[in-house]
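Researcher: Go.
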Amino acid sequence: MKIKAIFWDNDGVLVDTEKLYFEATRTVLLPLGIELTTEMFSDLFLSKGIGAFHLAKDKGLSEAEIDRLREERNSIYSKLLQESNFMLDDIMDVLTSLHGKYMMGIVTSAKREHFNIIHNKTGLLKYFNFVLTRENYRNSKPDPEPYILAVRKSGFNEKECLAIEDTERGLTSAKMAGIYCYAVPNELSKSNDFSKADRILYNIKEILQYL
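Model: Structure:
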């Protein structure tokens, strides 16, 4: 394959933030008697992409109450992002090596508010030609829409594009959009099914061997 564009997932690939999102979600569900485990988070969020607030609905909460829970979770997550160090080893070196050789974009399900908090601290955005956040599309991963839009923005065809993902939902999105995908599982996503990945990497630096 001749790759001309690389699309990067954000959380779990560029930055180690999924554990903070888990903690924020767990915090708001616990008073309801819902104990969100890492296994549940991996399945509901990282594999299926359906979230966990349906568990609150099962407890009898109204849509308005669930909306307030979601807002509280987002507020806690923002605070955790502001207070935490979430840089991943080697990512800066890898991006430096690839910069200028490929068109590169970030394709994320993160809200722009959270994305901005993250990257106001990282210095990574200088490596990318474009960014797509949750507000840029109607349907989030595992729907293919995010990567279909990324391909369109790149100007290349599907078989010239590669996604880097750490979750099954992201992998599903990329493959349904018709592009190549390398998976980089982490501690939270390692139980996901990556059998459809074109390659599984165990360290982000391995990508340099295959391009």
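Model: The domain at 18-83 is CATH 1.10.150 (DNA polymerase; domain 1).
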